[in-house]
What does this fold into?
Amino acid sequence: MKAKRLSVIGAPLGVSIVGAWLSARWLGPGRELTMAVSGAAQTSSELLLRPSMLSFHGELEISPDTLIQAASAEPVFSWTAQTPTGAISIPFSPYGVSRSGVEFHHYWQRAGELEDVSDISDFSLPLALENAGRPFNLKEMGQLPVQFGLRLDQARYADIMLQFAKQAGAKITDDTNQETEADFVIECVVDVESAAWRGSRIGLSAPDDLSGAESQVFANAARRACALIGDLSDQPAERAEFNRLSENEADRIADMRTLLVAEDLQHSASPELLRKIDVFRACGRIPTEDFEVFLSPEWLAALRARGVQPRRYDRMADRLPEAELLSWLTQLRRQIEQITSAGNPS
Amino acid sequence: MSGIDSEGTVNRVVIVGGGTAGWMTAAGLASMLGPTGLDITLIESEAIGVVGVGEATLPHLKQFNDTIGVNEAEFMAATSATFKLGIEFVNWGRKGDSYIHPFGEFGLPNEGVAFHHYWRKFADRPDVGPLDEYSLPVIACRNGKFQPPSEDPRSVFSTYRYAYQFDALQYGPFMRSLSEKRGVKRIEGKVTDVALDAESGHITSLTLDDGQEIEGDLFVDCTGFFGLLIEKTLQTGYDDWSEWLPADRAVAMPCESAGPPVPYTRATAHEAGWSWRIPLQHRTGNGHVYSSQFLDDDAAAETLIAGLDGKPLADPRFLRFVTGKRKKLWNRNVVAIGLSGGFLEPLESTSIYLIQEGITKLLELFPRSHDNAVEEREYNHWMDLQFERVRDFLLLHYNATERDDSDFWNHMRTMNVPDSLRERLSLFDAHGHVSAYEHGLFLVPSWIAVLIGQRAMPGGYDARVDRIPDEQVLQHLAGLKGHMAKAAGSMGDHTGFLTSHAGMGRTV
Ligand SMILES: Cc1cc2nc3c(=O)[nH]c(=O)nc-3n(C[C@H](O)[C@H](O)[C@H](O)COP(=O)(O)OP(=O)(O)OC[C@H]3O[C@@H](n4cnc5c(N)ncnc54)[C@H](O)[C@@H]3O)c2cc1C
It folds into this structure.
């Protein structure tokens, strides 16, 4: 029986991430996977891998250590975004810690109504770690109650993933004319459009204007395609599902983009983003959709940076006696200082 | 306390209704917001009484109990409760069929591919057997076993959760005593009049049959099918879903237990509906849910009585309802929780879960003032989604069937289902994929249990299964089946556990 041939072509980052995943999770008896990169990876550019990329690599048995050594990766606790009023830091982990099911920012807001308290970013362990001015090793990272991603060299990372795919049996070629030979083609481009599966072709696009979104979108698409393309025959139900999920993902990324950059938020926001803005402004909660790319602390940071402030805090935060609340906040700041300075060579 | 007591703030909550919904709401609010000075009053009328059914629950109730600090052993002893690991469905795919929808997983995923795909490839082989044999909670149900799940994710005993089956008439009083201890004021009386603010249309006060006037800032309508505040007063409107869920009657009748209580509820399909059997410590709850379009009351009662396991303990009690939900569950300063907000029929025991969800969302969005349009909209958005997703899952049971032995089943099997369900069914039908959602009650294993249990076998399976040699998959299946059987064998007996941990007064 003729082997089923799948080709992954296009931008180096997309081809390497998608191809690596498919080589480990799709390739098998009676199947061929060819990867053809067009254009060189941006040699000097840095790439951010969001925290969830660690489990993506974990499933491929590529450890953070491997990436640290082979692609000069460094742990990161936040990402930087541009807004009309300047650059902001968006942490991957919550400000402070939640208590009795109520998120920290409600307590912080209540404390602010009682007395002067310092900015909420002073209660962010991830931001403090980011500004600590010293490197953190993996052992330390494992003990910290924060999520972290990795910042690394894009070209070297793409190379690691390509080599991984090759070892797993994928064919790597320079010949970008793979389309004619293949039963199914996945083309990776860098763009803000959502991915679309039409006939025997998936066009995957990932945005490069939001740090970390690009690799995340390729990784999500790789998982999704791998689960749904099956034996590469035409599958209308799976195709519809793939496109539905990809659209949801693109919409949520577009929401974050709008939130960060739109001059007139109220008139540019989608209904889903408006829901987040309105509910946050009304009561400090951030509603989520079925499919989200960004984590709740990221939405919180972006909303606050764009001047969206809750009118009130969650009443459940009033359960904590005033004195206890204020001493808890002092204690939290002290703990953050201790963590960031521990082991500091200076 | 940060302005809460100043003018215009919401500080007085009045709950009308003392059934399961009313007392759960009172307990939830008193536990979570009582310490902030919230004033909570509950009005109930013993003369009107409660609906008195609603005895099977879902695992989420344990979380509710834990959050508000309910002691499990005390709660179970006070409500004659048993443990529940799933629901057995009899006669649903075809007459004579039986499957269990467990509160847990089937097998274990491998290389990111869900277990049922591996099983599907070899489902026709006799040595592979039914999917049920790969689920620990299903095997435990079939063998009358129970043990609390493990918290260690590596253990096979972490692959399930449990719920309770309790006496509905004992549950209200238990929650009442807890609520009163936490400061809830109870008033016995019948609400006869409701006063509205002329400008805002908000409710300002209620008048009771003894002339007492009760003022409030926020009113929770827990008056059951009466919908006294949300409908009779505010005329909110109702989304009638009987087009999809045509059952509109039930007849209930408890009976004596026929043996030790099993750790599951049974739902047996009949000619124009289905009957429940809920085993409690001291009796069995039974009822027949049916569509009056296809069956009359006498025939429904006959079917129920013919299927009882033991001697009846009361006369048959008939109930009427219309499946659907209020157009808005939160309208102005009224939030409808419980049957006043909607009812989707008792299949899959979702009603108490929806009460719990309503309370949780109300706590999350609890308004500070009457200017709460956003909170209202968000609450309604969330609850609509919950109701719609439950509706689709319930409808699945009626639609994914081969039964063609009555007008009712022919109608249900061939109906136009909502698009949301149709798309899910076609995705599953092709290669067994289930579209997962984040915000809904029923997760992927539940959809698989019902679809496969009702013979909606997918045409194919995830092609990644073919990457693994057949012998290896078969060996894995055999190993897993043996492991599950052995694990179930090592579990204790349900009745024994009830006796030692839940105050069951007799040994069997
Ligand atoms: C046939 C059937 C089977 C069911 N089985 C299940 C199940 O297995 N699992 C599940 O989760 N759910 C089930 N349910 C749903 C479950 O019974 C209800 O969700 C639950 O009992 C809550 O009811 P309630 O408190 O809203 O209403 P009710 O129990 O009817 O309480 C209404 C309260 O309002 C009071 N009241 C009404 N009018 C006034 C007035 N004017 N003044 C003062 N007080 C007033 C009444 O006195 C009463 O206290 C079932 C429902 C039915 C119909």
